[in-house]
Amino acid sequence: MSGSGDERAHKRSRQNVSQACVNCRQRKKKCDGNEPCATCLAYKDECVWGGKDDWRKPLSRSETNALRGRVEQLEALVRDYKTRLELVSIQRSMPSVESSTRSPMPQKLAPPRHRDDVEDVLHDDDGTLRFFGPTSAFHRAKPSHPPSREPFHTRGEDMKWARFLPDIYLTRDAHDTAVDRFFRYFSAFGQRVTPHLFYRDMELALDLAEADIPVAAPNYSPLLHNVILCLGLAYADEGYLRAVTTRRAFHEEANRRLDAEIGNPSLATVQGLALRSSFSSTEGDYSVGWINNGLATRMCYALGLHVDTTPLVERGKLLAEQNTQRCVTYWTCYVQEEMWAIYMGRTPLMSQWHSVPYPTVDTVTDNWEWTWPDSRAPPQKMYLSTCFVYTTALMRIATEITTTIYTGRYQKSDLVHDGTVKRFSDQLTAWLQSLPPPLQLSGNGTDLTLPHVVLLHLGCSWIAILLFQPFSQVANKEDVDFGKYAMTRCHRAALKVHRLAQLYRAQHKLKFVPPTIAQTVYTAGTSFLLAAAQAADKEHAAAALAHCNEMLAMLREISETWHAAAQKALILEELVAEYQNSTEAPVQAGQLWTVPLARDHPNPSPTTLDHPWSASDATLDDFIQSLFSQNTMPIGSDVDLMALLQDGMGLGLGTGQGSG
Question: Which of 269, 348, 492, 589 is 20 to 30 A from 167, alpha carbon to alpha carbon?
């Protein structure tokens, strides 16, 4: 009896252990915690300890459901990525590129070649395209991409949109407004970035490892995102967001990511580099901007954007969308290169041979919706791609003009007599007459007009001034008729710039302009100043100078957004002061333009004077006639105003030197 009592006492004193051996857990038996335990001894098994380290309670049903929901979200995300990732697998497994027939190009752009240039476009192991010519050894080199600087997902789900942005206070609403205004007012002219593709790939990229972004989301990059913000925030309503200190934080973040992106680039990298140079320009660092734009140009050629890759699409080795964007990105760089060349007075560097076709209209991009602020009109198509096609054509004409007239390779008189200037004039007229209805301006000037359409017409007038201004001074009697024609076209183009800038101010405000318009307004101001200097009487000189002062006022408005406009305003002010100090009867600089005289300022029309060499005096207005009713200019003989204007415009004009 006592024995059984002791046994019961022993059983009561036995304690359960917190961890059982593996065999006891599998058998769901109690384990005494000994090594070996009694159960394993009884079954003659090896007593094994270890395995599971986490002995917390099992997940609850709500936690399990939450995990299942997260799995479903991830599976949906994988399905969304499937189309993009199929491209990666195709490109990784593709054989070497065979030769094919290149698309026909104009004779002067496509000299005879012994090889098809698409052979020089290679695929890296990760599926991206690179270009190496036949002399390069890098056809066989393995690409080396630097590791990502950032661990995957360093911010919470609610701040995922700011994953690649600097640690600075910025609300999601302020972010979205800045990006939206960038696409509305900065990027639209010249299609610097394609909006719907950027937005789509940004959503993809925020859930990708950074190293996978260039292939899976080629229209987005952290560098591009930051540069878009440092430019788009210039349009912000809040002063602290517009402040250069705030915007420089995003510029510095873009610079921090520069080396990594150059080592693993995409189309977005090219766009980001070009926009990075624009930021330097807007802050007045034009030399830095010029050099940085060269990085974008080099990257453009490194990715082979100058090569027609249509054969790769036909073989199923490149998506049609990517082929289109490669073409768009190349011509975007081309447009910016020509604008930079005019801005700096230097020769454009992308006028060399290329086989990539000219851009064509993309209906998806055209259908991107423009909504008018304050709902002043219903939403409408943006016609972004159509505008870009005609912008490219205009800049190709501009390239011919600047490389012919402003490089000092030809005598001005030779260009007049051999018909070169008339040919350029006819090209501008034909371009303007070829514009489709969505890009035309209404006759009354009261209909709402998209900002990039206004900028397109401003660009045409800008190029017209650059074409005719060097020929607007009469050198000898033989060129008097052409001098009258050149001054007429130049002055009327300047008047059109004045009218279009007023239209933009009325419909969109000059605070919402891209920096290019500052150069256009400045060029028109120099044209008015030249007209004032050549006027035969005080009335016409005062009218022209008043227009020049109006251009100055516009530059000051633009300078509230872009500091570089203040630089141009200062230069133009100095030119006005130089003119006033040199005239016998200077006009007050503060005089404002009120109502123009009808006989002095006819409606500017590029089709006036169809045949410039035999234009009758009846086709010229009184103001233009007054410019040539004297033998000498009313400006002092010791001042060469034309040279001053050319220096101020940054354009060299001579017979023995290039533009630098």
Answer: 269
